[in-house]
Amino acid sequence: MPEGASATRSPSIGTIVVWIVRVALAAEFLYSGYLLFAGGHTEQTFAEIGLGQWLRYVTGVLEVGGAIGLLVPRLGGPAALLLAGVMVGASVTELFILTNGGPVLPLVLLIVCATLAWFLQDQTRALLGIEPPLDDEDY
Questions:
Q1: DSSP secondary structure string for all residues of 69-87
Q2: Whether the Cβ atoms of residue 87 and residue 49 lie closer than 8 Å to each other
Q3: 50: left (phi over 0), alpha (psi -120 to 50) or beta
Q4: What is the CA radius of gyration of the chain?
């Protein structure tokens, strides 16, 4: 290395792709959370679910909180898990409860969130204090 050159490493392509997915998911869930708080058609949807409007607000808080968590480096894994759980509920609701449900978007978001959670599992383990599993080479 030449003298005075910085010893910083550029991020790998995988890291860049993961961050692009995190930002895109955060934008989607911030927008979705905004729609839940704004009302309109979401009020009618949650009225059809039949559990009351409190569920709309709880869902909005979970989506906005998860979106913010995706943008915090240490919270990305747990936030992706949280949002995957929310999308499980949304998918089930769209499939079995709503009369004109459209399960495609929640299912796609579920797959993307679960995949992201898999790639960020080291963050989740670190936050929970769980040791990573031993590699096959260690046996």
A1: HHHSGGGHHHHHHHHHHHH
A2: no
A3: left
A4: 19
**The tokens of 42 are what?**
């979401």
Whole-structure pTM value: 0.83
Whole-angstrom distance, CA of residue 61 vs CA of residue 36: 9
What is d(CA 40, CA 20) in angstroms, rounded to the nearest whole number? Answer: 30
The mean pLDDT value of the chain amounts to 88
Tokens of residue 106, six digits: 């929640």
pLDDT digits (tens, 9 = 90+) for 56-102: 999 999 999 999 999 999 999 999 999 999 999 999 999 998 888 88
Q: How far is CA 12 from CA 5, 29, 103, 105, 115, in A?
A: 20, 26, 34, 29, 18
